[in-house]
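Sharing a chain and its predicted structure for anyone who wants a worked example. Both blocks are below, sequence first, tokens second.
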Amino acid sequence: GYTIPDEGEGFTYVPGQLVMARSQAPNSASAQFFFTAGPNASALDEAGTYVVFGNVIEGLDIVESILASSTGSGSLGGQPDPTVIVTSVQIEELAPGSVTTTTALVTAAPEDDVALLPDSTPAP
């Protein structure tokens, strides 16, 4: 397999972020990600090296409903049950200097869009 190197340190975590998953070992990310939600998001601050590459700017209620179906134990939850499959991703490039928005439609709520920003920079 392959791994993706960590990108810096000192990330802080708040509800609604799209974050690259990895094992507890540094530089071990590969192809999984997770959303942060609820008051436990800041529990990751101590590690601070899970790369944040998106923020939910619309549809956080959908993310929270998916996470509410978690089958995991412990304060950080686990995998949703039933499995939620992203059926469509659309990336739109905006005018120069603007942010890029990613829209994902999920099977749990196909009529709703979840919009993500590539980092924590507010939209213009």
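Comments welcome. The chain has one domain: 17-117.
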